[in-house]
Amino acid sequence: xxxxxxxxxxxxxxxxxxxxxxxxxxxxxxxxxxxxxxxxxxxxxxxxxxxxxxxxxxxxxxxxxxxxxxxxxxxxxxxxxxxxxxxxxxxxxxxxxxxxxxxxxxxxxxxxxxxxxxxxxxxxxxxxxxxxxxxxxxxxxxxxxxxxxxxxxxxxxxxxxxxxxxxxxxxxxxxxxxxxxxxxxxxxxxxxxxxxxxxxxxxxxxxxxxxxxxxxxxxxxxxxxxxxxxxxxxxxxxxxxxxxxxxxxxxxxxxx
Length: 256
Known about the structure:
Layout: H1 13-43, H2 60-82, H3 96-101, H4 105-112, E1 135-138, E2 141-143, E3 146-148, E4 151-154, E5 160-162, E6 167-174, E7 181-186, E8 191-201, E9 208-209, E10 214-218, E11 229-235, E12 240-241, H5 243-248
Helix pairs in contact: 1-2
């Protein structure tokens, strides 16, 4: 019986000699590719050494120099791009006119605080109504067969009586002849005024008074049927004249 010859799996010496150079060339190519990859990742500068090869690997120095040139070119380009002037952005701020138009708190407070008007007092007239607002109950003239020598002015009892003009008090008290409590004021121009039937006198003899000053209070002393002021004007002592036209020429209307 004929036996089959075994399969020859072993490599012959000639085959081994042919495969060794091919393996060496493949190994060299892999080494070169690996070195190039390391340079591209920034890990250049590493020299790749090969052993047991009859073809020297490409020098890593040249690849490293090329990578540095490319990096320098990129850096130079980035510098030029960053030096390009950038247009300033416009911020949405208020215009100077709008800012200046808004008042500061101090200016606003000054504008708000308006100056108070000065109080002015009207000068007192030289002659005034001795009892303003009073009703006239009797005028100067004949009454019941005798001369009523003054004007009667009526308001509730106790109403203040005012000096008709500035002067000096010459009498203050009971004037008799039915006048009751009376005050006489000499105005220094030849005229006197007489205020009768007062309930209470507020001045004394010799006292200087101003126009409008309170000299007493209305009453019914003496011969009086009710509280009222009997007002007379004398041109010289006891020379009574009609008070109505006299006071009217001096700006005071007594109603008669």
